Amino acid sequence: MNTKDAVVILFSLAQGARLEIFRLLVQAGPAGLAAGDIATRLDMPASTLSFHLKELAHAGLVKPLQSGRFIYYSAAFDVMNGLLAFLTENCCEGAQDCCVSAVCQAESA
Known about the structure:
3-stranded antiparallel beta sheet, 13% strand, 64% helix, elongated, single chain, Arc Repressor Mutant, subunit A, alpha+beta, 3 strands
C-alpha cells in the first residue's frame, strides 16, 4: 500500500456513518450483510446507505456481491489489513511486539 491509497481509505472512513457501516461489516465477517439488513441495523434510509456504500466501495473497503435481487456487502479484509500493516510498518522502530501484539490482543478480546 502507498500513501495515496491510505489517504483515500482513511478519508472514506473519516465520516461517522461510513465508519459505522464498515465496523458493522467487519463484525459480520466474510459473509457480509444484505444492504437492507445494514439499513435496518443502522436505522439509515436506503438512499443514504447507498451513497455511503458507494464511497466505501470506491476506496476498496467493501465488496458488493449480487445474489438474486439482493446485494450483499462484506468488508474487504485484505484492504483493511493492508492499511493496518501500512500504518504500523515502522512501529516502535521495528520492535514488532509493540504494535502487532496490541492488534492481536484487540482481536482476541
